[in-house]
Structures are given as C-alpha cells and as structure tokens.
Design goal:
The chain is α+β, with helices and mostly antiparallel strands. It has eight helices and 14 strands. It folds into two domains: 119 residues, Aminotransferase class 4, branched-chain amino acid transferase, N-terminal domain (D-amino Acid Aminotransferase, Chain A, domain 1); 161 residues, D-amino Acid Aminotransferase, subunit A, domain 2 (D-amino Acid Aminotransferase, Chain A, domain 2), CATH 3.20.10. Belongs to the class-IV pyridoxal-phosphate-dependent aminotransferase family.
Length: 318
Amino acid sequence: MTFAVGGQTKTPVWPLAHHRGELVPREQATLPVASIALRYGVSVFEGIRVYQQDSGGVAVWALGPHLDRLRHSCRTMELDESLCDEVPAIIDELIATQGVAEDGYVRVAVSAVNAGGIDEAAESALTVTITPSGRKRWLAKGEGVRLAVSDWQRPSDAVFPSAAKNISAYAGPRLALTEAKRAGFDSCVLRTADGLISEAPTATLFLVEDGNRVVTPRLSDNVLPGVTRAWVLAAARALGFSAVEDAVTEERLRAADEVVLCGTGLEFGPVREVAGVPVSRWPVCPVTTALIDAYFDQARGRCAPTPIELALPAGGPR
C-alpha cells in the first residue's frame, strides 16, 4: 500500500509517571475521588510525540506549540499555567530515567485535584507519562479509514471553548465515535450546528481538491487549533500546494480527490471512503503521501522542521 510506514520491532514498557512533583509508579498517579477533576471534568491535557532519530536517541516533536496550547487551556479553565514551565525538564527526566529509545506518546495533564463545589477555585496538579507508541494500522499496514459523517455536533464556543483541550470536551465525540464503530465505520466526523463538517473526535480533517488544493475546516467551525493541523497547512504550502481553511459541506467532502485525518496520536489516517462513497484517488493519493513523507523526514531529524504557527484565541475565560 502507498502509505505503509514502518513501526517499532519491540514494545518497551515505561512504568513511571511524574505526578504532583514526584516520580511514582503509574498506578500511584491517582486523583482523589472527590476532586473537582473527577466531579466536574476540570482537567486539561496535551499529547506530545517523541520520535526516534536517525542519528540516535529520541527528540520531542513540536514541544513549543503544544505548551502554548496547554497554557491557553489552563487559562481558559482557570488552572495554574505556571506548571507548564516544568514540562520540558520532566519529559527529559522520564526519557532518561526509563531509557526511552523508541517512539513514544507523552501525555501531560493539569487537573483540579482539590475537593469542592462546581464554583470552587482549583488547586492544580501536574501529571506526565510517556507510553510506547508506534504507527497506527493506517500507516503501519497501509489500510484506509472508513469514515462516517455523524449527526452528532461539536458545540459552539458559546457552549464550550473549542480551543480548550479539556477532558469534558471529548464526552460527546466519544459517543459519536462509538456509534460510528457500531455501524461498521472506523471513525467519524462531527458537524457544526449549521450542518458544516467540523472535525473527528480526536483528529483534524483535511481534503484535497482539484489535484493540489489542500482544504481543512475553519477554526470557527468549532475546530480545536491542532498542532498537526497547523503543521499540515504550513508544510503543504512549503511543498508547493495551495492550503486553505474553508467551510466544508458533506457534499464537498464526498467529492474530494483525497481525504485524510491527522493528529498527534493518530499521526495520519488516509481515508478510503466517506459514508460509503469511495474516495476517488484511493489508494494512490500523491498529496497525502507527500505530506506523510515530509512529516517523518522532519520528525526523524532528516531535515529541519517546518515552523508551526498555532492560532490560539487571546486571553482566558470570557
């Protein structure tokens, strides 16, 4: 298959977590049952990739933009953003202490750990883990995603701020994904209240039109300002493609030459069909392939990374 990208040959186990200022076994990295995080879902997070380098060792991918978004999420949810300053050293500590030498996924969370009512001021705690993470089957085996268009909606910013990566924002998309999988699909995209295409539960949507025009839904369509999304927009232009943010209808999505999902955990998921309609170029999708090749060349340290300009709203809560 066109998209096959090699993964790891072994699965290491990295058992430690950095939790509330200490390195502890993962099973001890817990939150109190009465915490505001568990009672009201006040916990923001980032997923950050670590990639094995061709020259040896591992490197953290796009750490700066991820921390910028984490700080914004903390401000929005009224959590302590100063904890974000500790993250680079903690990641280095987890890598060194556990001998990490393979691709991994770092999860950074800032959570409200104190007990209290819904309006209680938050006492914030930082938790960081790293987990082995190679390619998903879409890249490892060259498979294509069967994508549903869900009737579930992403909430508008008047309901919940799209740019805050808070755990509670994933409850509705989880239901949409579960429903899509029961119907035989691999993933789905949600809509806005106006019926436009927004994003997948944990990934951004891109489509290719007219052979070389890369399109993604606008941030105003209740889309999370994704780090991989920002990279794709910049990298596509650097590769000579047109790249725009625009309103995307279901009809436009079905008619696209190529369709791909992307995100930190997923990396890339090339789509083979949308709501049962085959994507016309699948499996030979030259724009998607060029982007995937460029991504791994940069992530592996073979060339300089494309600068990422992450569009985040100013300020914190309204």
